[in-house]
């Protein structure tokens, strides 16, 4: 499905209910599988979370998680500790290009039995669940925090817990802290000092309702819309000022891009700063790489340059996001260069209209480029890819006055 996006609206006004955080939901679904007396509320309706839930509640030996990278990492750890259960984890052709070797080797240090069925280091993998008694494990910390979180989520169910030593610069620390905070909320003892994380064994938790906060990554597109608008007031529910989610850094980052934020009764209200004058942006996104696509597209729409660093994990996402951004932004007339871990956009006052943006099976490519319709008509290819994390996205764009038309092109 290809969509043409256009709008003549200059004042954005809407109240949007954003689905629960995919990151929190997937962590809590795994914890609920380990501790069934947990009840979850406001869970994400994303494809990724549905895939995760089906895998955790089903009994099939072959589990296809499609494009869901978080599910691949978390489920690898989960099934590795399910004694006497044998499963094969596979996914889409892109998923079979996304590395799992660092996680597999860490689990093998603990005593897991995992076999690669095609290329070494990549899915599909066969997992023979074991009773794990080893507790000490060392892992490289500079690739994906999801590898680390996968271990931490199953740690309390291991006979002796986990003592995890991280080597190198730690990537996406807020996501690790989110995992540990959820464990702490369940009464599981944890510590994170220097490069060492400890999770103590605990085989039961008290019955509890865990309410998932709305997704901050999904909120990023509304920050971008407000930044690119003339005037705006958008209210988003349900958000916390002291969020566990790393992407809540949007509040500070987008303040430099013309967006004011305030919290009222678990809602987040975004407004456009009066008399805002755009300026060049320089951000280190090592802790929040998932919002890089949104930020660079916002900068293009504002006509300002940007230099973004800390982006090395974008090479192994749903697509090589750095290369995808370079290709698609160039179509729009941008002058952009990328390295293995950075992106530089030169300022430009002109954006080419009616460009068809390829999305590469990547939900964030579709949503990050959508705000540009405030500047020029734009076509989003394979637009239904947004269901991976935000199925209601195009409906919500229409609430803001977007004309969303399906086209054949």
From TrEMBL:
InterPro entries: Enolpyruvate_Tfrase_dom, Enolpyruvate_Tfrase_sf, EPSP_synthase, EPSP_synthase_CS, RNA3'P_cycl/enolpyr_Trfase_a/b. It is found in: Cytoplasm. Pathway: Metabolic intermediate biosynthesis; chorismate biosynthesis; chorismate from D-erythrose 4-phosphate and phosphoenolpyruvate: step 6/7. Keywords: Amino-acid biosynthesis, Aromatic amino acid biosynthesis, Cytoplasm, Transferase. One of its GO terms (molecular function) is 3-phosphoshikimate 1-carboxyvinyltransferase activity. 3-phosphoshikimate binds at residues 22-23, 27, 144-146, 172, 290, 317. Phosphoenolpyruvate binds at residues 22, 69, 98, 146, 321, 364, 388. It is an enzyme of class 2 (transferase). SUPFAM superfamilies: EPT/RTPC-like (SSF55205). It catalyses: 3-phosphoshikimate + phosphoenolpyruvate = 5-O-(1-carboxyvinyl)-3-phosphoshikimate + phosphate. Residues 56-397 form the Enolpyruvate transferase domain. Catalyzes the transfer of the enolpyruvyl moiety of phosphoenolpyruvate (PEP) to the 5-hydroxyl of shikimate-3-phosphate (S3P) to produce enolpyruvyl shikimate-3-phosphate and inorganic phosphate. Belongs to the EPSP synthase family. This is 3-phosphoshikimate 1-carboxyvinyltransferase. It comes from Flavobacterium kayseriense. The lineage of its organism: Bacteria, Pseudomonadati, Bacteroidota, Flavobacteriia, Flavobacteriales.
């Amino acid at each position: 499905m290809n969509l043409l996006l256009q709008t003549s609206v200059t004042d954005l006004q809407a109240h949007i209910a954003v689905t629960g955080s995919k990151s929190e939901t997937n962590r809590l679904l795994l914890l609920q599988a380990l501790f069934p007396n947990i009840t979850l509320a406001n869970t994400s309706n994303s494809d990724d979370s549905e895939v995760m839930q089906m895998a955790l509640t089903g009994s099939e030996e072959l589990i296809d998680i499609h494009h869901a990278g978080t599910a691949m990492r978390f489920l690898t750890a989960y099934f590795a500790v399910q004694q006497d259960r044998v499963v094969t984890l596979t996914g889409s052709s892109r998923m079979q290009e996304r590395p799992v070797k660092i996680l597999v080797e860490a689990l093998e240090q603990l005593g897991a039995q995992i076999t690669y069925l095609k290329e070494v280091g990549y899915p599909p993998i066969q997992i023979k669940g074991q009773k794990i008694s080893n507790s000490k494990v060392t892992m490289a910390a500079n690739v994906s925090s999801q590898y680390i979180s996968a271990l931490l989520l199953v740690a309390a169910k291991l006979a002796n817990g986990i003592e995890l030593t991280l080597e190198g610069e730690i990537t996406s620390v807020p996501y690790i802290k989110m995992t540990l905070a959820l464990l702490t909320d369940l009464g599981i003892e944890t510590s994170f000092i220097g490069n060492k994380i400890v999770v103590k064994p605990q085989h039961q938790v008290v019955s509890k309702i865990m309410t998932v906060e709305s997704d901050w990554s999904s909120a990023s597109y509304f920050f971008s819309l407000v930044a690119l608008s003339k005037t705006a007031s958008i209210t988003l529910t349900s958000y916390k000022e002291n969020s566990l989610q790393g992407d809540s850094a949007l509040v500070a980052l987008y303040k430099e891009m013309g967006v004011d934020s305030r919290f009222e009764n678990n809602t987040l209200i975004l407004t456009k700063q009066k008399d805002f004058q755009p300026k060049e942006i320089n951000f280190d996104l090592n802790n929040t790489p998932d919002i890089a696509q949104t930020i660079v597209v916002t900068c293009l729409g504002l006509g300002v340059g940007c230099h973004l660093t800390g982006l090395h994990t974008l090479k192994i996402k749903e697509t090589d996001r750095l290369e995808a951004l370079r290709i698609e932004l160039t179509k729009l007339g941008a002058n952009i260069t990328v390295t293995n871990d950075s992106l530089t956009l030169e300022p430009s006052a002109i954006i080419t209209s009616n460009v068809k943006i390829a999305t590469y099976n990547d939900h964030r490519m579709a949503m990050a480029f959508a705000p540009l319709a405030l500047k020029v008509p734009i076509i989003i290819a394979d637009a239904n890819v947004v269901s991976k994390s935000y199925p209601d996205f195009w409906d919500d764009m229409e609430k803001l006055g977007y004309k969303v038309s399906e086209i054949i092109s």
